[in-house]
Amino acid sequence: MDKQLMQNKITSLQNPKVKEVVLLQEKAREREKTGLFPVEGLREVSACISSGFEIDSVFLCDEILQEKPSLKGISPENIFSVTPQVYEKIAYRSSTEGIMALAKARHTSLSDLGNLLEDSKQNPLILVAEAVEKPGNLGAILRTADAVGATAVIFANPRTDLYNPNLIRASLGGVFTQKIVCCKSEDAIDFLKDRNIKIYTAQLQDSVPYYGTDMTEACAIALGSEADGISNIWREASDRKIMIPMLGRLDSLNVSVSASILCYEALRQRTANQQ
Fold it and tell me: Which of 84, 104, 124 is the last residue of a domain?
């Protein structure tokens, strides 16, 4: 074991760092107050570091750790070795490869996104999730956005903390690879309209099949929660209302599945001439 890690060994469950991590795992209010959030797992921590997030602390459990992570740029004094008992206490899940970190939150504003669009030479593809509450669905949406190379993701009227441990884990690091804006629906709509970005709302009523819609132009695909669907403010702002045909007896797909179908149609259209 590295001499510095031996000096930074944490063995007590009463250690102040242990209590800090547990509190951040459990309380969104604490994450908001401190600006810190926990990240678990080799892939997630690696994505967090490589995406430029500032790391406050790293915790390693040698008895669990199977692959040595790259911690370049992180001061040794901020790297702690912990016992399996301590890791079990601080980890949201015990099967996260023996590595976790505390990182400093980073937020993208609509203004930041506007600057990004000005620098881009391609028609943006923006995914909007309005009032989607389940962290697992939000995480899956971020994975889809990463897979199709979406320009950004907007969480409109968010009901879940962006740095919720379940959301981070479900995204497999997508929280760190994507440009994510959390804002009110009204502000998001104004932003899109001001930049002539077409708004396509996913809804069953008064809609047309999605595959007849041109998604090669600058556009935002907006989806609502499974319980309530997209809200009226988005319906009224919509440039085109699109639907995914469903021939079964149920009238609702999981929102993350719907996002995948629509985003991959956009990708298909945008890459059709590149084959």
Answer: 104
